Amino acid sequence: MRASAVFFLIAISSIGHASVPNFAQLYRETEDLIKLSKTYQRLENNDEYFANFDHSKKPLDFGTFDFIVVGAGTAGGIVANRLSESNFKVLLVEAGHQDPDTASVPGLSSYFFTTPLDWGYNTTEEDKICLATIDKRCIYPRGKMWGGTSSLNGNGYSRGTKWDYDAWAEIVGSNDWSYENVLLYFKKAEKAMFKIGLDESYHGFSGPQRIDFIEDTPGLTSMLLRAFKERGSIEVDYNGRNPYGVSRLQYFLDRNVRAGTAHTYIRPAADRPNLLISDNSLVTKVIIANNRAVSVEFMKNGKLYFARTSKEVILSAGAINTPQILMLSGIGPSQELKKHDIKLVKDLPVGQNLQDHIAVYPIFFRTRYTYYNLTLKEQLKL
Predict the structure, then answer these.
(1) Which InterPro entries match (predicted)?
(2) What's the alpha-carbon Rg for the chain, to the nearest Å?
């Protein structure tokens, strides 16, 4: 039996601030975001992309590119950045728009779950989880903007355990996936900014991706750490050699600002002449000829386009949308595709075996004593 790491994360923080020159504007946008999140009705489909679409018209030619990357999210934005460092002509297709200034404020992330910047997904009815909800279904946040879910998630930096990577290496029969080898790339991407508890041999210090602690809610983190230590836990770097113990949470953070893929990889590359970012573009199909992906079709502003590739189509549309696009393109379980009259290209178990994080949330007790009670404006100024 393979052991899994067990550690307790201390993740106490205030809202934080964004690096925008006009604080009054940020404050107004934050108020608008909070109001919208309380009234917004989450979408149940993608009909908005097909409004006024004339099905009789042929797709419009969007051009030819060396590489087409589908999804400007956590992975896709990085791939597009790296490919466009060379002279390759790259098209980055994104269903959403640019991430707003409010997305750079880490503590506002949950408000985006009920806005147009989230895909609006829910889990199916469950019998062991989501039991506190009316229909036993949980919302399943997925970002629909530059940076994808890295622009609205909890912002935590956790690589996973050594044993998972070593297991992958064994399954695929290649040592390239061993933790020892992938650690080189984690370190290459990282610029660790924190010092407390740092296991230096497991971190990088010159990469583009800043990793840091969020500024502590006064005294609370220290208090919780002391409590765990009194119970026998030791403080560890959970991304280091020993993941067993209690740890402060490491964040994708650039001076208290969310440092997701949009901040770190997309925006610095957006003005490159060989990188074209097409926003508001919903990919509907990858066209496959002679067992090769040759183009993609996508809806943009009520019109259907196709873009050709001379090299590769790279699907980075996330754990939900990538399988969906593959199945719409004819790659997936044959019986499922047959039900929807989709021509089969390859019978594969696409969309099966989705596994997500396992998390147990503690019980919170409320008292009349207010430990940390700042106004919204005061928190944004932190």
Answers:
(1) FAD/NAD-bd_sf (IPR036188), GMC_OxRdtase (IPR012132), GMC_OxRdtase_N (IPR000172)
(2) 22
Spatial distance between the Cα atoms of 119 and 52, rounded to a whole number of angstroms: 21
Q: In Å, what is the CA distance from 151 to each residue of 113, 115, 171, 263?
A: 11, 13, 32, 9
- What are the residue ranges spanned by the domains of the chain? 7-316+353-380, 317-323+330-351
The CATH topology of domain 7-316+353-380 is FAD/NAD(P)-binding domain (3.50.50)
Q: How far is CA 166 from CA 35, 177, 196, 335, in A?
A: 46, 7, 28, 34
Q: Dihedral (C-alpha) 318, 323, 328, 331: value to the nearest 10 degrees?
A: 140
Tokens for 55, please give them: 């099905």
- Helices and strands in the chain, H and E counts: 10, 14
Where would I find the beta strands (DSSP E) of the chain? 7-10, 60-70, 90-93, 190-192, 209-212, 245-248, 251-254, 257-258, 275-278, 281-289, 292-300, 303-315, 331-332, 346-347
